[in-house]
Design a protein that fits this description.
The protein is an alpha/beta fold. It contains eleven helices and 21 strands. Strands 4-3-5-6-7-8-9-14-13 form a nine-stranded mixed β-sheet, with helices on both faces. The chain has a four-stranded antiparallel β-sheet with strand order 10-11-12-15, with no helix packed on it. It binds zinc ion.
């Protein structure tokens, strides 16, 4: 470990031991600086139960109150001081610099700046720090995005990949050639763009070809007030080591070597309101510490392959639904699909793939076996059945993985 890490960790430990009701209780009686790896982890469940016990400052010091994305249960309240907003701005500035943005860029932000989201605010702060011109068009209207591309001539866009695809579809309908537009870079948030091998996935390829722009993948977590953005090399998001420390742990909480996929566990540095130590994100990916082609010496976080609790057990082996999803998205003759997991026994889940389209069971079995080494049950069903599973009543997001375990 470098000296810088030791200093940052010592600072975080002393600060939380003094100011955080949660950590004060946990660290009682510890006098010397403990090794970070010797401390227990904190998961989302615990964070949700003790939400405001993580707050280190009096309420009058709070500048912003946001909520977490809340993939499971009620979103948490998350608070930031003025200093935390400056840290957030610095983090985003560093991230946008990885994507090669500078003061000469005009950037269209097609992400919500309201609804208690942190992301939109973070982008706005980071782009200001960088000195860019900002067009806050938001995520609600593809027509407005196209109009502002034409009028403001932005050189980059920040958006969720699925929204970039909706805009591309609208552009096609309107006869608007996005490839000839001023946009040369698309900074993508919230959805995966790359496969484990770093190759662009179906969504990433569709965006690059429709927009004629270079796509950049990012990974951000509200509770960490942090995001990682990849550089031109497209080989993982660069970690800003002065702001965040990452570990990748296996199922027994042991650190994994470079390139091996496990749960991302994070410790924040320099956070004033709600610092976190060894926070389990629930997301799975690999870390890479070898030097990047761009020359930055910082570690890189590879593509997120899935949520830890989505991992499938298959006769002693394990895999993420994203592996099967990638195969199905690329197989010709598959119009739509759903992967259904059920509990079978201690060692195995039962996995069934429901498909609509002309691809034969044999073709699908071969493709799935070649890429994932497993052979799930495969069944052809109507498009209506798939639709009902993908978008059940009250669903907010389309899903291709249904977990019945
Ligand atoms: Zn790089």
């Amino acid at each position: 470990m470098t000296r810088a890490f030791e200093d940052l960790w010592a600072q975080t430990f002393r600060y939380t031991a003094e100011h955080s009701p949660f950590y004060r209780e946990k660290f009682r009686g510890i006098k010397d600086l403990p090794a970070l790896q010797s401390l227990p982890t904190v998961d989302k469940q615990l964070l949700s139960e003790r939400n405001l016990d993580f707050l280190c400052v009096p309420r009058e010091r709070i500048t912003e109150i946001v909520t977490t994305s809340g993939t499971t249960g009620r979103p948490l309240l998350w608070m930031l001081t003025d200093s935390d907003l400056r840290r957030l701005a610095l983090n985003e500035q560093l991230s946008f610099e990885c994507a090669g943005l500078s003061a000469s860029n005009t950037v269209l932000v097609a992400v919500a700046l309201d609804r208690c989201f942190m992301a939109g605010l973070a982008y706005w702060l980071g782009l200001r720090e960088l000195g860019c011109s900002i067009v806050r068009v938001g995520p609600s209207s593809p027509v407005l995005v196209l109009e502002m591309i034409e009028r403001a001539q932005p050189t980059a866009i920040v958006a969720v990949p699925s929204f970039l695809r909706v805009i591309a579809e609208k552009a096609r309908e309107m006869g608007f050639d996005l490839k000839k537009s001023s946009i040369k870079k698309a900074i993508c948030i919230g959805e995966p763009l790359r496969e484990r091998s770093f190759a662009l996935n179906t969504s990433g390829r569709a965006i690059e070809s429709a927009w004629g722009a270079h796509v950049f993948s990012t990974y951000g977590v509200t509770e960490l007030a942090n995001s990682l953005c990849e550089c031109d090399a497209g080989a993982g998001g660069h970690l800003h080591t002065e702001l965040l420390h990452l570990e990748v742990l296996d199922d027994h909480d042991q650190p994994l070597p470079d390139g091996e996929i496990g749960e991302i566990v994070a410790t924040t540095f320099g956070v004033e309101a709600m610092p976190l130590i060894r926070y389990r994100t629930g997301d799975c990916a690999a870390l890479f510490r070898s030097p990047c082609k761009c020359g930055r010496p910082t570690p890189r976080l590879g593509p997120i392959v899935g949520r830890k609790n989505q991992k499938l057990k298959f006769k002693g082996a394990s895999l993420f639904p994203s592996t099967l999803q990638a195969v199905l998205e690329q197989t010709e003759g598959v119009e739509s699909f759903v992967i259904v997991a059920r509990a079978e026994n201690e060692l195995s889940d039962s996995v069934e793939v429901l498909v609509h389209g002309e691809a034969s069971v044999g073709t699908l079995r071969e493709a799935l076996q070649a890429r994932s080494k497993i052979s799930p049950q495969i069944r052809h069903v109507s498009s209506a059945e798939i639709e009902a599973l993908q978008m059940p009543p009250q669903a907010r997001k389309r899903r291709t993985f249904v977990d019945l375990r």
